[in-house]
Specification:
Number of helices of chain B: 16
Oligomer: heterodimer
Strand content of chain A: under 5%
CATH superfamily of chain A: ABC transporter involved in vitamin B12 uptake, BtuC
Strand content of chain B: 15-25%
Number of helices of chain A: 14
Shape of chain A: globular
Largest sheet of chain A: none
Number of domains of chain A: 1
Radius of gyration of chain B: 24 Å
CATH class of chain A: Mainly Alpha
Order of helices and strands of chain A: HHHHHHHHHHHHHEH
CATH topology of chain A: ABC transporter involved in vitamin B12 uptake, BtuC
Largest interface: A-B, 42 and 39 residues
Helix content of chain B: 40-55%
Radius of gyration of chain A: 22 Å
Distance between the termini of chain A: 39 Å
Distance between the termini of chain B: 64 Å
Number of strands of chain A: 1
Structural class of chain A: mainly alpha
Structural class of chain B: alpha/beta
Strand order of the largest sheet of chain B: 5-4-3-8-9
Chain lengths: 357, 402
Amino acid sequence: MNSEKTVRGIELRDEYQKFIGRKVLFFLALILGIITLSGIAATLGSAEISVLDVYSAILARFFPDYFQTTWFAETIVWGLRLHRILMAIVAGAGLSVAGAAMQGILKNPLASEFTLGVSSAAAFGAALAIVMGAGFAGGEFLIIGNAFIFTLLASFTVYGLARYKGITPETMILAGIAIMYLFSAMTSFLQYVGQSEQVQEVVFWMMGSLGRSSWDRVGIITAVLIICYPYLILKSWDINALGAGDETAKSLGVNVERTRVIAMMLSSLITASIICFTGTIGFIGLVGPHIVRMAIGGDHRFLLPGSALAGALLLLGADTLARTVLSPVILPVGIMTSFLGVPFFIYLFMKRRKEFW
Amino acid sequence: MKRLMLCILAVVIFAMVAAPAQSQQSAVPGDRDGNTVVSDQELQLAVQEHKDGKISSDDLAEIRHVHDNYPRTIKDSANREVTIYKPIERIAVLTTEDYEVLRTLKASDKIVAASKYVTGSNETDLLYPEGRRYINVGDPFNTDYEALLKADPDIVISYVTNPKPGELEKNLKDTGITVIRMDSGNISQYLEDIRKMGYILEKEDQSNAFAAFYNQMLGTYLAEVKKLPDGDKPRVYLEADFGSGRPYFTVGATHSFDEMLKAAGGRNVYSNITYYKEVSPESTIMQNPEIILRYKYLKNIAGLGKKIDDTSGIEALRNEILSRPELKNVTAVQQKEVYAFTWDCTRGGARFFLGLGYLGKWLLPELFKDYNPREAYQEYLRNFQGLDLDVVNNGVFAYPEA
């Protein structure tokens, strides 16, 4: 009897370890993928610097005594390529984590920065600066600041509306969709009254690009992620509990409203800090988490870090293709994220017949 | 179902608006058989009627004029034959370029409807002081067809590709309004366009006068540029930034800015791409341009209304390029051959007298030594646009001034 129990216990432990092992393996594969792709991406570009020169330029910063580099290689690698690669990694990770958190707390597979009105609010903020703004003097910061402020404004409005009606996932999604339509309409109106050149620029802004990356901006986004991400991870158990229903979560001692509101605000903050620099990069926040969910399941302790890795890999791959496939022309990265991500998404979707949500 | 009802309603309303417009179209005077042409025989009949006291001398003169001068056919920029059967009395013009062309031809008394930029925008007071008089028909991208039909023009002038080919024609079908599509911002056919418009408007004298002025002012320089071998022309990177402050967007073949650049004597380092695209900074460094030009639409920061020394905004544009670390070793930046110009240099006639002029002076300073963009533009505005603006001592258009 006793030994039977022990055997059962060992079996369970083995099973759990296998279960965890698969996830760890998945993480390792993603991390390896990101490192490899970064390594390759650093060597790709119109400047046609040899792989050796690229790595000499990178290592010369850390070991100036051992590695020689030229001004040209240094400028290309440190001034143009590396921060863009890191930007893709942090932006992809951030958007994907924000999406995963939103889907989790709202218990809705369609929740993302798009369906919650966050993206369209950012686009409206940018369009307002482009069409009505004073131009160059405040120019760039006006657009960034506007996008950021409107993103947060939309989140607070969604929250306010939902709170007024009682915060349930449905009310939040509904309020988000209403806000999305409102901001989209206002953006369309601005495009209608704007000069054709401004209209074109609004369109470009909405397509999203990593062309505006810089070390400072990578730093800002990283800082926001460092501040917001640990809280989300800390609350991943609570988000899991929310999945079983608000009542159940409450009975497990989760402060449902507080968790939902804080997680929502942090996700919005992450999204805002990214898309104000990049423009709206759609799809990653929606599909990054779904890909991970299909691969390793919906446990947020694993889903959140997994989404970060998957989003980073997806955006990095997309941007690398976007800037090399038609070189010297750079394609909008949003086009590439869809080209890369959708077939993969559909593949997983077809392969895993069972309900994954 | 609801959509279907809406569609039907729209069609009915459109038909109601279109129908009276159609009936308002007056027939060709003196044309009895309805073939829109006054034949010798029809003229004879009119002469007879005049003798019999049935029509006035003015009527007869009009019929004779139509008989002697019409139909007039041109090929518009969309390469379609456009035939005019009687003197044009009412014009709707959707573009600002063609609006200026009509002023050049002294035909603005025939304008009845114009684009929203003419009838009421921040340029209206300075550049189109008479603009508020006209019916606002939107612009080529968002045309207000009801207003257009209400204006009841004989012809409507727009761009080649906007409104979309066929859209304008379809919406004006059976109204008797003739659509003319022009590409008057295109340097290679600017004079030809003006000549064609002069012909159908019976303003040949004005179009000849303008051609003479243009050739004397700018044409001689451009002809010299054409003779230069490619090797003598500088290699240019033109960064065109239309409002968001994003760098490394440039123009290539088929863009009108590329045409301008070529005409002014530059070799576009990105002539192998088309239209308007983002390019990688890396390839720009690799191309090592000798001159960098930066274009930006600067609302309220540059333009006609600015004091001539109020250049801080446009200076910032140039300085931003000069301070980009990645461009530090590019020839243009090292030799400070970086220039900025604004939208005010590229709209209507300014594109030629101001824009092309500045570009020429920057790219080939020796050849354009005696050309003065501000003075040429001033003469154009005074003599051909009827505007009493001082652009020699006022306005910010380009930096540094050549």
